[in-house]
């Protein structure tokens, strides 16, 4: 069976499809997040590291790292949909970029917030001007800038295209953020934040962390689609099919 | 093509020199911001020496941002901008000429006023030279990146505040390496080399991409 994916580039076709997909993504996200919370709390070691172990509080990792990953990934998604929208001039791409942005901003905020709580017991400070923390903060500003620019322009077409261009320009910051975490040469970047060390992590911790990442990813799908449906209804509000939906909702 | 570039450059500079207050306002804004800090944080020699590079660079960032709003606004209001877009010349080139003019009028004066500011903060002679050099390499980047934001927020209500929200995050690398160079120069002048390499790399990248992005942004804003 082949599915014509381009059919779903039309808001008319995508609206009901997204509606059917949301419960699946949402439900799976809930299951995965609950599973990884269970696994992270009860199946993992109580302390981390050798001579100066991190005790129970290291479990923040299960929220912190997946949220940081999602914050970068969603910016990439945002910029990709913006680029597709600018190149092919498709309405839905801009709406998609628009729908992803708040979720990305929230994940960036969560990464910063949980990082602060983790920093307090392990480094003795909520915040430090370390390249990794600072670059994540810049990412947060980029999301806020995108949302602010879009909401400042009344003309939808101009708002879409202008903020899409901004998202693509902001993309230059993404490698900086990525390599400030995965620094190729540790001597080059003295920092408080530890390097990414996925390869030598304990397998139970890794399981919980990756499940949480998958859960967060599906959650992003669910929320973005829900937001997207709202945006579609708002923008297509003078078309016939939207009016039919509104009438049907009003009756039930 | 060079002729068009020179034409726009000459026009913008002539226009600005007819109204000198615009240029001087930016310069005096820079001086006032820099002079406020010692009054706010205390005037101890050692502390000022440590704060100096960062304060000067932050003030340069704000001053260049303040002037950005005017980069396209006047031409947009009287329709010149639309005429420029209708000419057969590449828009990116025209934008680049406008950016260069903007930098000559707002960035370059900051470079020359820097020694005065350096003395206010008791910086050593070597550090002052490095500060001038880092501003000379860094302020063009600010004008180039800022042009993108100025083009995107063209004609919007509250454009100035929005502009700062969009552009300041992108300025951060320039700020870090620009003030870093000056701070390092107080310890060992030779160690500033990597900072200048990085600033130079930023400048080349910005020179290549910023006019194109600004031109695209102008097309979006004016259409």
Automatic annotation (TrEMBL), chain A:
GO biological-process terms attached to the record: cytochrome complex assembly
Function comment: Required for the export of heme to the periplasm for the biogenesis of c-type cytochromes.
InterPro entries, per the entry: Cyt_c_assembly, Cyt_c_biogenesis_CcmC, Cyt_c_biogenesis_CcsA/CcmC
Transmembrane stretches, start-end: 21-41, 61-88, 95-113, 133-152, 164-181, 201-219
Keyword hit for Secreted: no
Protein name: Heme exporter protein C
Organism: Thiohalocapsa marina
Pfam families hit by this protein: Cytochrom_C_asm
GO molecular function, one term: heme transmembrane transporter activity
Sorted UniProt keywords: Cytochrome c-type biogenesis, Membrane, Transmembrane, Transmembrane helix
Topology in membrane: Multi-pass membrane protein
Automatic annotation (TrEMBL), chain B:
InterPro entries named in the record: Cyt_c_biogenesis_CcmB (IPR003544), Cyt_c_CcmB_bac (IPR026031)
Superkingdom of source: Bacteria
Membrane topology: Multi-pass membrane protein
Primary site of residence: membrane
GO molecular function per UniProt: heme transmembrane transporter activity
Record's GO cellular component terms: plasma membrane
Known role: Required for the export of heme to the periplasm for the biogenesis of c-type cytochromes.
Family: Belongs to the CcmB/CycW/HelB family.
UniProt name for this protein: Heme exporter protein B
Gene behind this protein: ccmB
């Amino acid at each position: 069976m082949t599915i014509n994916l381009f059919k779903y580039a039309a808001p008319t076709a995508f609206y009901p499809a997204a509606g059917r997909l949301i419960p699946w993504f949402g439900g799976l996200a809930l299951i995965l997040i609950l599973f990884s919370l269970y696994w992270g709390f009860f199946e993992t070691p109580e302390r981390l590291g050798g001579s100066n172990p991190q005790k129970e509080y290291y479990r923040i990792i299960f929220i912190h790292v997946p949220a940081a990953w999602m914050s970068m990934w969603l910016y990439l998604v945002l910029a990709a949909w913006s680029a597709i929208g600018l190149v092919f001039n498709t309405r839905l791409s801009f709406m998609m970029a628009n729908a992803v942005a708040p979720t990305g901003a929230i994940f960036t905020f969560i990464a910063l917030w949980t990082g602060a709580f983790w920093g307090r017991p392990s480094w003795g400070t909520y915040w430090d001007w370390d390249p990794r923390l600072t670059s994540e903060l810049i990412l947060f500003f980029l999301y806020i800038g995108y949302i602010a620019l879009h909401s400042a322009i009344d003309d939808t077409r101009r708002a879409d295209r202008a903020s899409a261009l901004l998202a693509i320009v902001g993309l230059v910051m993404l490698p900086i953020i990525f390599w400030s975490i995965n620094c190729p040469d540790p001597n080059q970047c003295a920092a408080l934040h530890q390097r990414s060390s996925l390869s030598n992590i304990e397998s139970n911790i890794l399981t919980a962390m990756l499940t949480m990442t998958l859960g967060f990813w599906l959650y992003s799908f669910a929320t973005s689609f829900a937001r997207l449906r709202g945006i579609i209804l708002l923008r297509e509000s003078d078309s016939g099919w939207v009016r039919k939906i509104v009438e049907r909702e009003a009756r039930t | 093509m060079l002729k068009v570039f020179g034409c726009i450059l000459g026009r913008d500079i002539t226009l600005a020199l007819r109204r000198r207050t615009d240029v001087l306002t930016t310069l005096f804004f820079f001086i006032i911001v820099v002079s406020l800090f010692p009054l706010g944080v205390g005037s101890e020699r050692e502390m000022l020496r440590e704060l100096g590079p960062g304060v000067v660079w932050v003030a340069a960032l704000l001053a260049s941002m303040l002037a950005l709003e005017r980069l396209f606004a006047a031409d947009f209001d009287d329709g010149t901008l639309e005429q420029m877009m209708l000419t057969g010349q590449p828009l990116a080139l025209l934008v680049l000429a406008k950016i260069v003019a903007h930098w000559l009028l707002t960035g370059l004066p900051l470079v020359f006023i820097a020694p005065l500011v350096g003395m206010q903060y008791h910086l050593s002679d070597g550090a002052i030279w490095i500060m001038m050099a880092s501003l000379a390499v860094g302020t063009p980047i600010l004008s180039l990146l800022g042009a993108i934001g100025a083009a995107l927020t063209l004609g919007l209500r509250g454009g100035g505040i929005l502009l700062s929200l969009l552009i300041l995050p992108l300025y951060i690398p320039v700020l870090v390496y620009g003030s870093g160079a000056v701070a390092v120069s107080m310890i060992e002048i030779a160690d500033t080399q990597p900072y200048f390499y990085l600033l130079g790399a930023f400048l080349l990248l910005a020179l290549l991409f910023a006019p194109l992005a600004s031109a695209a942004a102008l097309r979006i804003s004016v259409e």
